[in-house]
Every structure is written in structure tokens, then in C-alpha cells.
Write a structure and sequence with these properties.
116 residues; mainly beta; 7-stranded antiparallel sheet; 8% helix; binds zinc ion; OB fold (Dihydrolipoamide Acetyltransferase, E2P); 32% strand; 1 helix
Length: 116
């Protein structure tokens, strides 16, 4: 019998993939925190609820200001960690209005919609 016993450093551990503004890794699924599988799934199957937008500004405090392309509406979002390395002013993005997902290319974020 072959025993599979990887060293501790090789074992998968459960931890949040992003740093949270609340400190440490994030396992919080509230708006603006970690993206859940169900949120991703529900946003995927409700394709008419996405709004194309252009990023106006990304702050160090996690705020993202957008303007929608169709209606020229200003939207203010918040994410628990700074996402300025993933999204910059002038970038095209999509926002899901019901499941509050911000899509930056193939990277999706759970965001809190502060003002729409
Ligand atoms: Zn968080």
C-alpha cells in the first residue's frame, strides 16, 4: 500500500484569496467582499442585467467610480481591497445590477453598489 502523505507545506489550506479591509484574509460573502460560487453562477445566467461602463476613478480605499455607456449614469462601488492593479481609469468593465458583480475582463469582483 502506498501512503500519500504530502509535507504540510504542500497541503491545501482553506484561506481567503484576497486581503480584506477588515484585516486578514476574507471569508465574508457580503457585498464588497469575497465572490461566492452562487453569485458568479447567478450573474452568469442573468445576462440582461449587466451594464457596460467605463471606469472613471479607482481609489486606494476600494472605491470605484464608473459611468455607464448606455445611459451615462454615474455609479459608485466599493470593494474590500484595493483593485487598482486589476482596473484603471478608462478601462471598460461590466456591472451586474442585481448580483453586484464587477467584471474586469475575465476577473470578477463582488462589489457593494454605494450609489447608482
Ligand atoms: Zn472582505
Amino acid at each position: 500500500m502506498i501512503e500519500f502523505n504530502p509535507p504540510a507545506s504542500a497541503r491545501l489550506t482553506h484561506s481567503g484569496s484576497t486581503e480584506c479591509a477588515l484585516g486578514g484574509p476574507c471569508d465574508e460573502l457580503a457585498s464588497g467582499h469575497a465572490l461566492s460560487f452562487m453569485q458568479r453562477r447567478l450573474a452568469s445566467v442573468t445576462s440582461t442585467k449587466w451594464h457596460d461602463a467605463i471606469v472613471d476613478e479607482v481609489s486606494d480605499g476600494g472605491q470605484i467610480r464608473l459611468t455607464t455607456i448606455a445611459n451615462n449614469e454615474q455609479i459608485l462601488l466599493w470593494h474590500h481591497s484595493h483593485i487598482g492593479h486589476d482596473v484603471k481609469a478608462g478601462d471598460p468593465v461590466a456591472l451586474h445590477e442585481i448580483y453586484h458583480v464587477l467584471a474586469v475582463g475575465s476577473t470578477w469582483f463582488n462589489v457593494s453598489i454605494e450609489a447608482f
